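Researcher: Please predict.
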Amino acid sequence: MDIQSNGTTGSARAGYRRWAEIRRRVALFLLLPLLALAGCGGGGSSGGDGEVVIGLTDAPGDFVTYTVAVKSLTLTKANGAVVETMPLTSDVDFSQYTDMTEFLTAATVPSGLYTKATMVLDYSSAAIWVEDDTGAAVQATDILDMDGNPVTELEVSVHLEGHRALPIAPGIPAHLTLDFDLNATNRVAFGQGGEVTVTVEPVLLADVELEAPKVHRVRGPLKSVNEADSSYQVILRPFYHTLRGDHARFGALTVETTDDTVFEIDGDVYQGAAGLAVLATKPTFTATAAIGELKRHPRRFEATEVYAGSSVPGGDADVVKGNVLSRSGDVVVVKGATLIRGDGSIVFNDSVTVTLSDQTIVRKQLSLDPYTIDDVSVGQRVTVFGTLTDDTPTDLQLDASNGYVRMRLTVLSGSVVDTSAEPEQPFVVDLQAIDGRRVALFDFSGTGIDASNDADPSDYEIETGTLDLSDIAYQAPVKVGGFVRPFGQAPKDFSAQTVVDLSAIPAVMAVNWDPASSEAFGDVSMTRIELNMSGVGPFHHVARRGVVVDLTTLSQAAALIARDDDSGLFLLQHDGVTQLFTRFSQFASELDALLVSGYSVQWVHARGRYADAAAELTARFARVRLQ
């Protein structure tokens, strides 16, 4: 591909030119991956090795499961040297990491300045399931690129230049974020015979500073415990790798704990030093999993919750993870379920029927308080430990009458219907999804004190306590984290721990025209490019962390507008050439000239702040493909 650069000179132009090598066929084509990297150690920056810790996450979407093999993850130095950081091919179900980052590997790499990260994914045995109109999970039969070609093995690369470059050196912390949005860059089509086709046209962006940090998870066998330092070491075993044995192919990571860290070990709950003391009594290679935050100054992983022994899925019990779809008496149906067998095998099924009893132990994430099965209600995200009593693929049933349920943080997506400054008044949201699952799938019968008070997803009442909602406007897109109220006790329907206004979250816009259109833009000026939705293809959306805007439903035309300082990264692709601009005005001027000369528009990808009222995206990145 030829590269033309505009708006820069000298070495700066050479640096920005490398940015334009972002590949069209990006591998993680359903997800928003995040690489969290940190260097540590001692010594100078010009020699020796540094340690890079790499994690993966994704953006939410309508994919029930998305399992693909990660074959390779390399970092490339400015001098062209390539370092492989992935020790083994790993099957990853990215749909499980909507609101969490999984630590993938802790690799020792040579010190230096790294300007490229590349990941190779193998789709030859991919398990991709999507929800149809009835909510049933259907496996994708065809995975295609925009040219209609089958996708098998794909490579995704992102180039890091200037202040976005990644330095690895003893004692120098670093951080890299790769953004890819599921809803904005993928569309699913159902054929008349029920076959499912996934079409993808991805965009991969990079930042060295994390704008929207997520919680992180560290999984693997216990290596050692240091009570004096309030920490322990874990041998990394990400995703579905077995927790048994001492193979340290993915490296080891230190987990720091605090007085507030909650431990659940073999079903018993502890806090702080007491929990760490119990963990110290467990044998080496005991299964562990920790959830917490990546801290800075100094860079470290600090656990808010630690699980060990039989409290970790993959131990002796059969485990189901998903959201409660419905409840009748002591029987709940778990939707989007992942079944982890006691022998370590993994089974995906659309739903699993779970039987509870008064003997079922119920825990809540990050809580020491006791709970009962009455607290388990519709929509709640759960991990259930029990025994599989029926392994018929179409009728999986789990007996948890002598097991236990862990209620996990549940995330709502939707728009604000009503908010009040009065603490006793509910915060009301029109729900779009619960943990990425469409609300139409859930049966809220029995959730209220009577039928007239059953939860209404279009008028979902949220208890917010002392949370400050004063800056959240009517119809603002929001994500709410917390727990569903006990079954049969609504209203209110949900107890919030966090409310995040997505209005300020960077959005991804993806629009294509099929066929390519010479009238895709209604008006092009030096500060504004107006989009014409006539003739658009399957992509015509703006997405912000799971909340999606369909641009064809708006009363006004959507538009890209320039930032106040006119800066950004803008690409025009045509005739095998990529022109790169660092000024919106220059980008718009050249685009207008190409349209006048007879070119048509195939694709627009953009990222920036999206204003719902004006339907305007203030672009810091944009890519337009012409023919």
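Model: The two ends are 15 Å apart (CA to CA).
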